[in-house]
Predict the structure.
Amino acid sequence: MSSAMAVPKIFHSINYSCNRSKEKPLFDPVKAVTQTSFLGSVNKLRISSNVPFSSASVSSSVVAVSEVVKERKPKSAVSASNLLITKEEGLVLYEDMILGRVFEDMCAQMYYRGKMFGFVHLYNGQEAISTGFIKLLTQKDSVVSTYRDHVHALSKGVPARNVMSELFGKATGCCRGQGGSMHMFSKEHNVLGGFAFIGEGIPVATGAAFTSKYKREVLKENCDDVTVAFFGDGTCNNGQFFECLNMAALWKLPIIFVVENNLWAIGMSHVRATSDPAIWKKGPAFGMPGVHVDGMDVLKVREVAKEAVDRARRGEGPTLVECETYRFRGHSLADPDELRDPAEKARYSTRDPIAALKKYLTENKLANEADLKAIEKKIDELVEEAVEFADESPAPHRSQLLENVFADPKGFGIGPDGKYRCEDPKFTEGTAQV
Ligand SMILES: Cc1ncc(C[n+]2csc(CCOP(=O)(O)OP(=O)(O)O)c2C)c(N)n1
Ligand SMILES: [Mg+2]
């Protein structure tokens, strides 16, 4: 990797040797080859301990991030007191994370009461990533998600009642009940979809980023929109990931690839499934910065996100960010979650990102208990209202069954009699009772 590569300033200020505080180191690639565990996983690394770690890699120009935040020089009124956020910003972050958590807990209840269909994948534990990135974006910026998508949609501003309604399969859902849990979409909010096939969203995000660049450079429009693509560690072993990193770097697209590394792909441990578990290193291989950050700390995520989003907006190209995180529930609500080691789960439960933010806000006198309780109450009511709204909403009309299946707007084409097939009353007979 070239040392001449443009590396954002925040990434310069940190290196492997920086002091990672009292906490256990998140990931030290030097230790990774000599120790047996990776990140917080109890699983063993595949790399054998007698493989020497190249000193060239350690002195790479693209470095891992850890105590990023503490190393920044105060430059505004906010940081004059060495705080990373204002009270207002802190409360926005807290509210968004609480919304994500409460919404998902409610989904679990509704799922087990039979209100939702198909698979439902919850985001508990990973909130700092959605909040840390998306709360920095404008409405015109785009977000692309995976099947674990409810919270990304909420952070981007899709109303909770429309997300819940979508989960209930109702006509008032953000996709009029046609998408369900894994396919959140909102044109208005530029949520370009949840995707059930892993990796499918990455090319869509790359295309959206290409659109921004095309508008700006070819059509000469005033466009500095960026796109953030979220996906998991398991997805990084798919070809689409590599193809898109290549294209995005080649064309300097305004995109941030955000890996939510929760250490597991269903029941497959990340360290057993990939040749080099440090995903962030794949950025420099394609000519873009690669960054590793504590995904359980919204303030650290936010600092990294700021730099990467600004870089994309300035037209300086893509960034790959690996956020170390953990999901607090099974892979989906159908997963009894018996594969992960209880010790590993217990260790991460002590690093709840919401509790960490709460501690920061109260210790720094940015908020008191009453402020935070008021937010929690507001969100409880909002989510209750979302459930009532979804429950009372009508089911989609049967005619919707035939929409969006083919490019033909009436669906299913024209029959031999010259009429639209869907107009034949026998068309859906015996198949759908809606
Ligand atoms: C193309 C494709 N192959 C396989 C699957 C089955 N599958 C569903 S989730 C999953 C694991 C993905 O793990 P990761 O990317 O780490 O995301 P996480 O669930 O941990 O958020 C797999 C392999 C799929 N959905 N799509
Ligand atoms: Mg994963």
Observations:
- The CA atoms of residues 421 and 427 lie 7 Å apart.
